Amino acid sequence: MLHSLAQALQDTDFAQWISQSSLAFPWFESIHVACLTTVVGAITILDLRLLNLAWRSRSVRDVSADVLPLTWGAFVLAAIAGALLFSSKAVEYVDNLAFRLKMLLLALAGINMLIFQFTTYRSVADWDRGATPVAARISALLSLLFWAAVIISGRWIGFTVH
Question: What DSSP character marks residue 12?
């Protein structure tokens, strides 16, 4: 079933154009990488604040308010560009270990973020300008690890899909 869906996606005119164009794939890949870099950079800023390693004079809420709109905008663009790249070689990506690992790691990063948002961050008013609680620091550390692993697995894809 999954392979049938991947094949149907890959057979669309737009996916074929991306696959066969000498410019489309590199352009979408550049957009994907630039946006992903922005996402990881912005998340790193917040994670370093949560770890009390940077911007300690700024409140967590202020840092969050500064970086999250940029993070979400760049994430949406990265996801769109990534989906377009996926469409061009969907059958090959579905079976690719590096791609599967990247998707798993993205899901884990998202789950980590949701747990943080719906548990620890709810009490941010209590610790906003001081040292962050252990749960926030653990979440920040996991976030940095997950996003680094997303980048590594994404690069691995480039060496395993042709």
Answer: S
For 111, the domain range is 2-160
What's the token pair of residue 149? Answer: 């692993």
Whether the CA torsion 90, 95, 25, 74 is positive or negative: it is positive
User: From CA 28, how far away is CA 104, in angstroms rounded?
Assistant: 22
Q: How confident is the model at residue 129 (pLDDT cuts 50, 70, 90)?
A: confident
| Domains identified in the chain, total number | 1
User: pTM, whole model, 2 decimals?
Assistant: 0.89
Q: Across the chain, what does the average pLDDT equal?
A: 94
Q: Which sign, positive or negative, has the C-alpha torsion 143, 149, 89, 74?
A: positive
> Distance (Å, rounded) from C-alpha 71 to C-alpha 90?
26
Block residue for tokens 């993205």: 106
Q: Which two tokens stand for residue 90?
A: 């969907």
Share of the chain residues as helix, strand and coil, in percent rounded to the nearest 5: 85, 0, 15
Question: Is 37 within 8 Å of 81 (Cβ atoms)?
Answer: no
